């Protein structure tokens, strides 16, 4: 047996590893299992280049709990390590073997997960002691056992090991003992390892027999090694996309449609994004996208990483260029991550534009479920607005849909004010504003329905972008603002009668802080004898104040 001291510096790194490396202790399992997967992938690579001539056999990674010994063990049949390799890759913290391997086998290497050479040590967040028992795939190699109790000293000795590969034996510490529970480990494997590219087994499959759950002889495989996003879009049918959606969100309602991302330049990115039906509030629907790095789950809280409106989408994004990293702020400031989010924004806009162009009817049918997403994107991402203004739709009170450009062509003849601004009339509640809508239509105007949670903000935004188009609610001081094609009909009431009537109406009107106006002109025979309106500007100020309160 030999002993030694860990590290490239004289500092003891363990206290830092234990407390600060990962805010989330759970991830040790992800790190150890992904190392086992890496080791198996590396062996596959060596076999494909002819450098490894032996049998590959079953490469699955086994996770097991020994409740008596209080250990959690991850075993693989990958490349294993020689004593020299342990000294190099394990004893020198922060020296990542993965990086060196990737450099050497750049072109044929299967995706390697590790980047930083700190992953293995995360096992010390939950263990009093960790053993590595390993036999290298190399001919004539001898098995070795490395052992360390969470301080800079370690021991290294020769042992017997029949099979190629590595066992990582974690002696779980007393205050982390829930990691010795079947259900806890199952839950973590489901979270982090569900789509790893090498089979992971944990215990045996169970089945219900005579009202009891019984173990079978069959291994319980916890992952799908070949998830939909890793396949070519051409090889997938519509139902493959919907069954993958159900794999991700068993209880979710069917999405509207999906985008399959598949980029290999200037960075690597795959994934499938789904557009959910967004009913009434954007607030409650965020955070369903899962971020992966080479099929290893990284996070499902992507705010700050992708633009906020994209957090409304569902699905999976996978990129080896997203660092499997220790801190969230690092992810947010990472240049690759920024490029990736810009790309996704562009891709999402382009896909919507494609659907819009290819099948306008389908797009219109989905619009009501889609509009909050598009509006949110327009309001928060300049780059998205630039693309989305071409396919963003508005709906009028006859349930007809228009792009902004189409709509302008319809109203510009009839609905302008004295300064030649175009006036888009809108209603926020078709029932409550019914009489105003009818009156406006009788005058030959068109009225939009703008009743979404975000329409108020959208109107302000659009007016800023195109100052020559104004939005005026249909019960506002409409008549004053528009140039009439026909002359207004003189009211049959005398001036004196009008003056007498105004206080009668005013006394009945609710006091909302915004003054009402009573006017008596009307158009045509079937319209109202008088109109009660509020100033658009005043009303909108008040509505915005109420929304922000
Ligand atoms: P990284 O995975 O980022 O390289 P880790 O700290 O997770 O960093 O692992 C350090 C190194 O230890 C790996 O690069 C690899 O060379 C070696 N290693 C860890 N686990 C295994 C394993 N199960 N089989 C073979 N080598 C391993
Ligand atoms: Mg690793």
UniProtKB/TrEMBL annotation:
Belongs to the heat shock protein 90 family. The lineage of its organism: Bacteria, Pseudomonadati, Bacteroidota, Bacteroidia, Marinilabiliales. Keywords: ATP-binding, Chaperone, Cytoplasm, Nucleotide-binding, Stress response. This is Chaperone protein HtpG. ATP binds at residues 31, 35, 76, 81, 96-97, 166, 328. The chain holds residues 1 to 549 of 683 of the full protein. The keyword ATP-binding applies. GO terms for molecular function: ATP binding; ATP hydrolysis activity; ATP-dependent protein folding chaperone; unfolded protein binding. It comes from the Bacteria.
